[in-house]
Design brief:
single chain, mainly alpha
Length: about 500
């Protein structure tokens, strides 16, 4: 997956919604294909039927045990294949349900007829690090049979060290790769590039790339994107342009639309909008095949960030002519119009989303809600949610949380507390991380109000929900979190 750290969408968790500039989109597509072959389709029709994927997907509460679901499935006389479990793990990881993914992995490990592959061990190690921390991951690594460690588990551990910025440990693992002759492919070097990138040690990044050249190891898309992104975040436009020129003459590499969108972002960061638009036009021409829809999602938002409203509307018209418009498309367009400051246009698209889509996710609605609250348009925010309910669309915890936070910012604490209660009562994955400041404000409001019964009811909902008030706000998602996932190059060797 490609490395990307810029954060233009503080409005919501947009990096996952639109597959923004990361090759995790490829991972998701692969997972979907695997699900299709194992009968674990991700379509809503199959979820409606009593499939294993449907049960797992609906059981988003953090306290729900995946092991109980799997055991119940078997007790009903049904069977489950190992590839189906692998698919479930991949999907759960893609939705950041790491604890549940680890439970499925542990259950799979406990079944004697299912043998763990090198990839299974690597994924389990990565999930252990995410759920229990690096120390537990190291302990688990020691339990992996030596002949099953290389290269995947070493790669997973290296990636964990890179994410945790453990330089000495990462460098020690990298030395293992060299000693075992496992450094003939780019992925361990890419892990080190990610580490030095996170530490802002850009000279070390250049040293890593020189080592690759000396050893005859070809740069891949991740190698190029990590280094290119370093130029972007440092605002080094000249360095970026020079690096792109080098990429363009590399006979082993062909630039794609993702590369040019990343370059365009560099220009946008530097305020060079004319070059950004030219580069985006180039990216648009390269958007072909199965990734074209994903490309258009990215391009819509990038044209908005380049302040080109004409291109946003032009591309939206082209998009509607090429594809059926669903939640992601509407979300990208609403986000783009909000970035342009065109709330009237964003409102039209969001209402169209609510009225036309059968299986509406509230991503576009949530974006507009936040924009309304930022502009002080509380009544419009309420009207938007009421309209959704009138269409038979039931808001989930994520939406109620946005309402609670918005009301709180505008000192409407009674309404904020009611909305927070609805968020706590909702049994879905998006509602289990609450903004500490909003939650604290609601608790303080109830204490001052002096209604001990209502306060205890609120605390009971908090306990029952399994929420953690210490977690960061649900709308903060850095690409740094996404690139911590085990590199698919590592897992598929």
């Amino acid at each position: 997956m490609a490395m990307f750290v810029w954060k233009p969408w503080r409005l919501h968790n947009f990096c996952r919604v639109c597959g923004v500039l990361c090759y995790s989109a490829r991972t998701t597509s692969a997972a979907a294909a695997t699900c299709a072959t194992t009968g674990t389709t991700t379509s809503s029709s199959s979820a409606a039927s009593d499939s294993l994927y449907g049960r797992v997907s609906r059981a988003g509460h953090p306290r729900t045990s995946m092991i109980q679901i799997l055991e119940q499935w078997l007790q009903e006389g049904r069977s489950v294949k190992q590839d189906e479990l692998r698919c479930l793990i991949t999907r759960l990881r893609s939705f950041r349900r790491f604890k549940h993914a680890l439970q499925v992995s542990e259950w799979m490990c406990s079944i004697r007829s299912m043998n763990f592959s090198r990839r299974d061990f690597a994924v389990h190690l990565d999930l252990t690090a995410k759920v229990h921390g690096i120390d537990r991951a190291e302990e688990y690594f020691e339990t992996i049979p030596c002949y099953m460690r290389a290269p995947q588990s070493y790669g997973a551990l290296l990636n964990c060290y890179a994410y945790s910025k453990s330089v000495e440990k990462a460098e020690a693992i990298m030395q293992k790769f060299k000693e075992f002759g496992l450094d003939r492919r780019p992925y361990p070097y890419n892990a080190m590039l990610k580490l030095y990138f996170r530490l802002e040690r850009y000279d070390e990044m250049d040293n890593i790339m020189r080592q690759m050249e000396e050893r005859g190891i070809l740069f891949d898309n991740l190698t190029y994107s990590i280094r290119l992104n370093a130029f972007v975040v440092t605002g080094d436009v000249k360095g970026m342009e020079s690096f792109v020129a080098k990429m363009e003459v590399d006979p082993s590499y062909t630039l794609n639309w993702r590369d040019y969108v990343l370059v365009a972002n560099g220009y946008v960061q530097a305020g060079v909008f004319d070059k950004a638009i030219v580069t985006l036009n180039r990216a648009e021409r390269l958007a072909i095949g199965v990734s074209k829809k994903i490309a258009y999602h990215n391009l819509l938002t990038m044209y908005a960030r380049a302040k080109s409203a004409d291109d946003v509307y032009r591309l939206w018209d082209a998009y509607k002519g090429l594809f059926d418009v669903h939640n992601k498309g509407y979300t990208c367009m609403v986000s783009s119009l909000i970035i342009l400051g065109d709330l009237e246009g964003a409102e039209m698209i969001a209402y169209e989303n609510l009225s036309r889509s059968k299986d509406v996710e509230f991503f576009a609605t949530n974006l507009l809600l936040r924009a309304y609250f930022e502009q002080g348009e509380v009544e419009k925010a309420e009207a938007l949610v009421n309209r959704a309910i009138s269409y038979g669309k039931e808001p989930r915890a994520f939406t109620w949380h946005i309402l609670a936070t918005g009301y709180c910012k505008h000192s409407q604490m009674g309404a904020a507390t009611k909305a927070m209660k609805k968020a706590l009562m909702s049994d879905d994955p998006g509602g289990q991380k609450l903004d500490k400041s909003t939650l604290t404000a609601c608790l303080d409001y109830l204490r001052v109000k002096g209604d001990s019964k209502e306060l205890e009811e609120f605390r009971g909902l908090l306990d029952d929900s399994g929420c953690n008030s210490e977690t960061s706000s649900i709308d903060h998602c850095d690409m740094e979190d996404i690139v911590s996932d085990v590199d698919e190059h590592i897992l598929d060797v």
